[in-house]
Design brief:
- There is one protein chain.
- The chain is mainly α and 119 residues long.
- The protein has one domain: Cytochrome c-like domain (Cytochrome Bc1 Complex, Chain D, domain 2, Orthogonal Bundle).
- It is built from 5 helices and 2 strands.
- The chain has a two-stranded antiparallel sheet.
- β1 and β2 form a beta hairpin.
- The longest helix is centred in the C-terminal third of the chain and has 16 residues.
- It is globular.
- GO terms for molecular function: electron transfer activity; heme binding; metal ion binding.
- Pfam families: DUF1924 (PF09086).
Length: 119
């Protein structure tokens, strides 16, 4: 699965550059359709991604357990989203564990990010 490392030639991280890194690591093109299914479905656990982030995740969400507000996840509604690889990895690791019971694959990360970018 592994973390991504942005190339030193990339001057700024954007959702698209992070998506391209996940695609390169997974060796397949991301699918926004698969990403939407992954985001909105339960995977044998109590929550889906949309349980806290909303469906679609374009407005403020609310953590299902703590009630804490969560800023919009879609980059077009929150330009700060998916601009720092270390934060993306931290939150995907934590949230994938909550939703999937494991770390997401690079392909799953790419699919979810691809869908979020399209919103």
């Amino acid at each position: 699965m592994g973390s991504i490392a942005i190339s030193p030639t990339v001057s700024a991280e954007t959702p698209l550059t992070i998506l391209k890194q996940y695609e390169a690591l997974s060796k397949q093109t991301a699918s926004a359709n698969r990403g939407q299914v992954l985001f909105t479905s339960n995977h044998g656990r109590d929550w889906s991604c949309s349980s806290c982030h909303g469906n679609p995740p374009t407005q403020t969400g609310k953590h299902a357990s703590t009630g804490k507000n969560i800023t919009p996840l879609a980059p077009s509604f929150n330009p700060e989203r998916f601009t720092d690889t270390s934060k993306v990895e931290k939150w995907l690791r934590r949230n994938c564990n909550d939703v999937f019971g494991r770390e997401c694959t690079n392909s799953e990360k790419a699919d979810i990010l691809s869908w979020l970018i399209k919103l």
